[in-house]
Every structure is written in structure tokens, then in C-alpha cells.
Amino acid sequence: MTSKRSVIVIGGGISGLAAAWQLRGRAEVTVLESEARVGGKLRTGTLAGVAVDEGAESLMALRPEAVDLAEAVGLGRALADPAPAPVTVWTRGALRPMPAGHVLGIPSDPEALAGTGLLSEQGLARLREEPSLPASPVTEDVAISTYLAERIGREAVDRLVEPLLGGVYAGSTDHLSLRSAMPGVAGIAGRGQPLLAALHGRPRPKGSFVRGVEGGTGRLPLAVARACGARILTGTTVRALERTASGGWRVQAATADGPLLLSADAVILAVPAFAAAALLGPHAPAAHSELSAIPYASTAVVTMAFARDRAGLGGLPSGNGFLVPPVDGHTVKAATFLSNKWGWQANAAPELFLLRASIGRNGEEHLLDRPDRHLVRTALNDLHRAVGAIGEPVAARVTRWDRGLPQYTVGHATRLARIRHDVAGLPGLEVCGAAYEGVGIAACVATGLAAAERVLDRAGVPG
């Protein structure tokens, strides 16, 4: 080739920025972002003068993509491990730590649950039966609860698995796909193995499962944006895509200064499924249909700061936070004690205690219709019931994520295959983001890197 390919990346979240990073030096890249800032759901603000993450507050460390990218763009020294603490569940009126050795709430050793109060005697007895139950290969995708309730009992699903998956997907095990949301467990099911024995034999990863970024994970997309060398246009909303006579793509966008028309050899759609569906409608009807069918959950994050010298009668909580099973009927689905979990936040404001609570699961959008002050009071009431009277916050903020988390419902993998097949018929067009192969930061980065490589491979650009 005598000149570099030109690529337009639509969407300035971490997936799109990862794609731009992967294309650096091998293509002329323009990133179009509808918001006034890049980063998508990685956003760091301030509360009471302290940096706080308003979206995701950690990177998955069990897979390398996000950590490697952070190191590559100069944030290696800012990566931080959380304080060691067990996963804790607020259930049956108490905070109950989960024993080590579980996989997304599935215990590999039922005896480790004895005396924890996490399960009733009946629930624990049902769990102990799992190794002796017949196991036939599960050949089709099913809801997580459909498979797990038969293996470990409904109580274990409701009180152990549901709170952990709710924290990841804001969804329900009655609807989430076993194959897409728990692929490792799906592999065991597909082989027709007893579940707990297979989990018990797995090697346990060493080190922290997650890592944070000193100063907030919102630093990551900003660092990638600076390092990738792309032209980045914020406040630019893409309205339509057109094929050009030369086989490239023309992008119609709207800005504060009026319409914008750009052309490129290739386009990468790094936007939510519903936004990608709207743009692909005239070009890939099957992809449009499948993308439109991906549901999304809306959530809110309530971040609060408490003065340590004015802590309530219960004092300030210990541990890193807790998860909440929906079956217990509380509004808050999780809480993170930021000043305990992250040393950098405790050091930034030693006089304050920072925490955040998450509200909203798929199907609970009505909870988010309340004003901010009501969500703060609701979260505070649940916190008081969970950890005791910790007093009133000196500052609070509500961050709402409307349609923030895609739901990997039953059949998601098949849906994804249809999307990929239809998009493959459009030379110079790729998709990436949280709607496809994982909602975590590392998974999103991986989809962006892969989309960039596919664009270059199809154009014959060497690595």
C-alpha cells in the first residue's frame, strides 16, 4: 500500500479508544464521540474534593488486556491492588463473608458454608447432594438458573450466585445466558460433569482478581486518548452511514457548529447495541434485528462522603463492601467502602470515609424514576440497616447510567454469530464493545483490539 488506511471509530469509550490505540501508526484514525468527553462508563469525578469513580472502579486482573493497556499508556505505576477482604453478602439480616474457593458464588466445597448463615440447613443439605446427582451434557444454551437450580438448588442460586452476577450484569439468573455469562461453567455443563467436583479441581489464580487506578479508572481512557495519536472529535453525534462509490464509508454527523461529513476506508462501531442497530439498519438487516434485541439494564451509583469524626453510633464499617441478593427485598444491590478498599482514596482524604452504593437491576427501572435526593436517602437507609447507624453524609452524588449494561440473555452467543456473519458482508466495517463478548473493562478492550486487527487484516495491512 502506498498510503495508510483511514479509519473512523464511532464511539469514544474504552472499546473505541482501544481500537484507535491498536491502529496507531498503521492507519489515520478519527474518533467521533457524541458526549463532551471520552471514556464512556469510565468516568472519574470529585466528591468533597476527592477523586471518585462514577462508573466502573476496577479492572479485571485475571485477563491481561486492560492492565496491559494501562501499562502501555503510562499508568503502570498508578495500578493498585485493593485491600484483601472476602466477598461479603448482606443477607438474612447480617453481613456474611463468603468462604474462599467459590466461582461467581458457586461454592466448590459445601462444607465451607457450614455455620456462615448464608444458606439454611435445607439449602446446605441440597447443595451437598450435587456430587451424587446424575449429570447429562447440556447441549443447548439455557438460563443460568435453569442449570444451576437443578445442580445446587434454588436457594444457593438466589443467595450465592444471584448477588455476584447482579453486581456484574445487573441482570437475573432467570434470564442470563449460561453460555455467555458463565462460559467456564457452561463448559462443565456441556461435558456432562458433576459441577462442584469440576470446580474444586480447578487451579486458583494467584494475586488480586481486580486492580484499581490511583486517581480513578477515568484516567485510563484519557491516557489512551492522548497516546493513540488519533484525531478525537467530541460533541459529535453520528446520524448515518453511507457506502461510497470507492467501497469506503461516508459518515454523517451533527455537531454544535452544524453538520459534519467525513469519509474513510473503514468504520468501527464502538457504541451500544441499540446505537449500532440504528446505523446498520440500511446495510445489515440481520445485524440490525439482532442488535435491537439485546436488552439493557439501567443503574445508578450513589456516592457518599462521611466525616470520620462525626460517625454515627454504629461507627464506620470494616471490609470492602457487600453484595445483596434480590430475594432479600432491599433496594441497594451492592455497596463498596472505597476508603477501605483503595489505599489511595483513604490517603487522599484521611478525614473522610467514602463509599458508594449501586441501585438498579434489569426490570427495576422504576426505582430510578425517583429524584436524586430520594435515591440518596434510600441508599442511606439500606446502609444503616446493613452496617449500623453510620451518620449522615457531608456530601453525596447520584450518577445515572441509562441503558448502561447489556444483558446477555439466553441465545446471546447465537445472536452474536448472526451479527458477526452479517457484518462480515460489509467490507471495511467492524463492531466492538460491551454488547458482544463481556461487559468488563478487559473484555471491552479486547473487542476493540480485535476489531482494529480485523480492519487491518481485511485491508492487507501488516501487523
Description of the structure:
By secondary structure, the chain is an alpha+beta fold. The chain has 3 domains: about 170 residues, FAD/NAD(P)-binding domain (3-Layer(bba) Sandwich), CATH 3.50.50.60; about 100 residues, protoporphyrinogen ix oxidase, domain 3 (Orthogonal Bundle), CATH 1.10.3110.10; about 110 residues, Polyamine Oxidase, Chain A, domain 2 (Alpha-Beta Complex). The chain is about 35% helix and about 25% strand. It is built from 17 helices and 22 strands. The strands form 7 sheets. A 5-stranded parallel sheet has the order 12-2-1-16-22. A 5-stranded antiparallel sheet has the order 18-19-20-17-21, with helices on both faces. Helix 4 runs antiparallel to helix 5. The longest helix is centred in the C-terminal third of the chain and has 19 residues. The protein is globular and about 70 Å long.
**Low-confidence sequence ranges:** none
Got a strand count? 22
What is the annotated CATH architecture of the largest domain? 3-Layer(bba) Sandwich
Class by SSE composition: alpha+beta
Rough outline: globular
Specify the CATH homologous superfamily of the largest domain.
Answer: FAD/NAD(P)-binding domain
Produce a short descriptive summary.
The chain is built from 17 helices and 22 strands. 34% of the residues lie in helices and 24% in strands.
